[in-house]
Amino acid sequence: MTISSALSNAMTGLRAAGTNSETISANIANAMTPGYGVRTVSLSSSQIGGVSVDGIVRNVNPALLADRSLAQSALSNATDRTTFLRGYEDALGTPDNPNSLSSRIAEFESSLITASSRPDAPERLEVVVDAARDLTQLISSASRKIQESRSEADRNINLQVNQLNTALAGVKELNQQITRTQTLGGDTSALQDSRQALVEEISEIVSVRQIPRDRGQIALYSTGGAILLDGGAAEVEFSAMNQVTPFMTLSGGQLSGLTLNGYEIRTDSMRGALGGGSLGAQFEIRDEFGVDAQTQLDAFTRDLIERFQDPAVDATLAVGDAGLFTDAGIAFDPLNEVGLSERVAVNAAVDEKQGGEAWRVRDGINAIVQGDVGDSRLLQTLSSTMTAKRAPLSGSFGSGAFSSSNLLATLTSKLGADRAQAEQGQTFASTQFNELTQLVLADGVDTDQELQRLLLVEQAYAANARMISAADEMMQTILRI
């Protein structure tokens, strides 16, 4: 080997060592950076001697990343669903909560029994009115909570659609940059890291599958079959509402669905084209969970109002007159049930806060003057009305007959079962995502291994530097001869 060839070999070794040290330093610095792929330097023997740097290799497990993306989508979906059901259950309250709807029903029934034992006591009649008012206020509050959740879901859909469009445009741009960089022979690792971060952002919103394409590009397809990115990026459109009311539904045309490149797509939980992630969960909350919750609560409220609107219960009522509980001050109309739970109120005739008199609870809603203060027959009838079994005329409670408290128990028990099932699904999704994340991290930067590699690089650098130094000494010796 000539001195010049030895010097050339040593110089290529120094360059390789320098590239290796830079790569190792970048790995260690980004050990905790999400989406970072471990880099290694690809080396080969040069035909003219020495070592050649062929490029930087980004080491990732595509199958593992794909599984984690799907798990991330499932976790986002399950978390949003569980959050809604928990919020609605909190609005109704659990039976052990003194401020729950169950407790308010029990307090109202108890106040009727107490008042019937002393119908001449005005304060006991006032307690009945107060208990009835507290009951209606809690029902109205729960109904407003449902619509607030639906309104929030509508706003979240708008935000996520904008975020999705921005992320898809970003992936498209990075695809093009990666192709250009590859063509010029540059390192695309940082660009791939950025693209993977955007793909994970998209996965939280929509469940997607990543398909490799030529020249380093990728395509994105939703698990529902929609093409989100394949060369060009899809454009998703949505029209948000400021406030969602019980009368607004997707099927009725008052609420917006989604369009993909100008074409309407399904958004339901069964066959939604962009389901599986947080976006699908928001549509479920707005168009399925929220609508069903409102329907069930309205059905319960209807049953409550109709129990006291019957002239057979209160002889002072005529057909079409409002009873103790009203629909915003008037009698309930079966054709106007939607949103009833938000409008329910105590009849102004018995409510002193609305100019009424509490003694009408004892003598009849439409009584003009007080009757016998010792007459407890109406109070006893009202109490019996609450415990009487009747089949609800709306809702999905089945064909059985229920007392008012039994009907509420059926509603809350189903809600509790749905919430427990949602929490179970969330726990499974969270466990799966965490396990896959740990596997991805295990394939990530191992700082101990990187430091060991750095020591070897330092040794190689020192050896090549010593070779250059020896070659220099030899050249100086020859020159002095």
TrEMBL record:
<dbReference type="InterPro" id="IPR053927">
    <property type="entry name" value="FlgK_helical"/>
</dbReference>
<comment type="similarity">
    <text>Belongs to the flagella basal body rod proteins family.</text>
</comment>
<dbReference type="Pfam" id="PF22638">
    <property type="entry name" value="FlgK_D1"/>
</dbReference>
<keyword id="KW-0282">Flagellum</keyword>
<feature type="domain" description="Flagellar hook-associated protein FlgK helical">
    <location>
        <begin position="97"/>
        <end position="308"/>
    </location>
</feature>
<keyword id="KW-0975">Bacterial flagellum</keyword>
<feature type="domain" description="Flagellar basal body rod protein N-terminal">
    <location>
        <begin position="7"/>
        <end position="36"/>
    </location>
</feature>
<feature type="domain" description="Flagellar basal-body/hook protein C-terminal">
    <location>
        <begin position="444"/>
        <end position="481"/>
    </location>
</feature>
<keyword id="KW-0966">Cell projection</keyword>
<keyword id="KW-0969">Cilium</keyword>
<dbReference type="InterPro" id="IPR010930">
    <property type="entry name" value="Flg_bb/hook_C_dom"/>
</dbReference>
<keyword id="KW-0964">Secreted</keyword>
<dbReference type="InterPro" id="IPR001444">
    <property type="entry name" value="Flag_bb_rod_N"/>
</dbReference>
<dbReference type="InterPro" id="IPR002371">
    <property type="entry name" value="FlgK"/>
</dbReference>
<dbReference type="Pfam" id="PF06429">
    <property type="entry name" value="Flg_bbr_C"/>
</dbReference>
<protein>
    <recommendedName>
        <fullName>Flagellar hook-associated protein 1</fullName>
    </recommendedName>
</protein>
<dbReference type="Pfam" id="PF00460">
    <property type="entry name" value="Flg_bb_rod"/>
</dbReference>
